[in-house]
Design a protein that fits this description.
Elements lengths: L10 E5 L5 H11 L3 E6 L3 E7 L4 E8 L3 E3 L1 H8 L8 E6 L2 H7 L6 E8 L5 H10 L4 E7 L4 E8 L2 E7 L9 H15 L1 E7 L20 H21 L6 H12 L13 E4 L2 E4 L5 H18 L3 H7 L1 H6 L1 H7 L4
Antiparallel strand pairs: 1-6, 2-3, 2-6, 3-4, 4-5, 7-11, 8-9, 8-11, 9-10, 12-13
Helix pairs in contact: 6-8, 7-8
């Protein structure tokens, strides 16, 4: 399914006929960092999610096809004149875009719930008790206003609101506004669940030179990128992220020899990992994760980091479980 942010797009109603899609995404990767390109026509719809460095997931649907993953992205890239797509571009914060990229696989489990029979606050509590991983889509009154509430294992991890995410308002206040608006004006709710078997973006069947699946390298790049974003937003600019990270790697090099900067086996720069060493996937992930957690603790960022990572953890839940990694 296609789930569209409630906020206003940064650009809308572009005609795909006149657009070089690759250049458009490349532009917005630099302009807004992370987001979604949403496609709509009378006969088809879809989305491509991206962050600063890569495409994260895609979804394409018409009367004959329902395609998820990189095949869907290729479908849009190859699109010529069959559909006259209108394109809207939305900025999605990096800490949320990985969760957004899993939404196309969601299935509706409760449809058209009305405030005549249930209230939003009670519905949220019910979904919490059911350990929902998915979202609640709220339409207020005649549909001019609304919101999305994202949940992971029953915990609220974020949302989207038609009045925007005002920086002066904390998330809890926006949630209160949404609940009150549903009480005052009435509303209709849709609840969707992300199935465990579908909640990861499918990977291209590629291997790195080290033999690791491309997914593990990408997973760690996203992990480090999320921490780098948080670190940069909280620390004085005189504190250099790369120097702090390298120092931590040096401290842990005795346990994880591939982290030794002088060996130059593991390098992270410009949100990209280069790895030429030999080690088990579990050791690679553990070495990076342990180093980041320790660094986050030293800078009093660990509670915030865990919040930032909630959608990343859900995206790679199965892989992390296979590796025995817990954060």
């Amino acid at each position: 399914m296609v789930v569209v942010p409630k906020e206003k797009p940064v650009m809308q109603n572009l005609n795909m006929y006149y657009i070089d899609l690759r250049k458009l995404i490349e532009h917005f990767q630099g302009e807004i960092g992370s987001g979604g390109i949403f496609f709509k026509s009378s006969n088809a719809e879809g989305v491509i999610f991206f962050d600063k460095d890569e495409y994260l997931n895609g979804y394409f649907r018409d009367k004959d096809n329902d395609i998820l993953g990189y095949e869907a992205i290729d479908r849009f890239m190859e699109e010529e004149s069959e559909y006259n797509f209108s394109i809207d571009v939305y900025r999605i914060p990096q800490e949320e875009v990985y969760f957004w990229s899993s939404l196309p696989s969601a299935d509706k489990i409760y449809k058209d719930l009305s405030t005549e029979f249930t209230d939003l606050e009670g519905l949220i509590k019910k979904m919490g008790s059911e350990k929902l991983t998915g979202f609640i889509d709220i339409s207020i009154g005649n549909g001019d206003e609304g919101g999305l509430i994202f949940m992971s294992n029953g915990e609220i991890i974020g949302g989207s609101f038609s009045w925007g995410k005002e920086e002066s308002l904390p998330f809890k206040r926006n949630l209160e506004i949404l609940i009150n608006k549903s009480k005052d004006s009435g509303g209709v709710f849709q609840v969707s669940k992300i199935p465990l078997k579908k909640n990861q973006v499918s990977d291209k069947p590629l291997k790195t030179g080290t033999g690791f699946s491309i997914n593990v390298i990408r997973m760690l790049e996203e992990f480090l990128g999320i921490f780098e974003t948080l670190f940069a937003s909280k620390q004085d600019k005189q504190v250099d992220f790369n120097k702090a990270l390298r120092k931590k790697f040096v401290e842990n090099a005795e346990k994880y020899t591939f982290l030794d900067p002088f060996a130059a086996e593991f390098e992270y720069a410009n949100r990209t990992i280069s790895f030429t060493g030999e080690t088990e996937e579990k050791d690679l992930v553990n070495g990076v994760v342990e180093s980041v957690v320790e660094l986050a603790e030293e800078f009093s960022l660990l509670p915030e980091l865990k919040n930032y990572l909630s959608s990343w953890i859900k995206k790679y839940e199965a892989r992390l479980s296979d590796l025995g990694i817990r954060i």
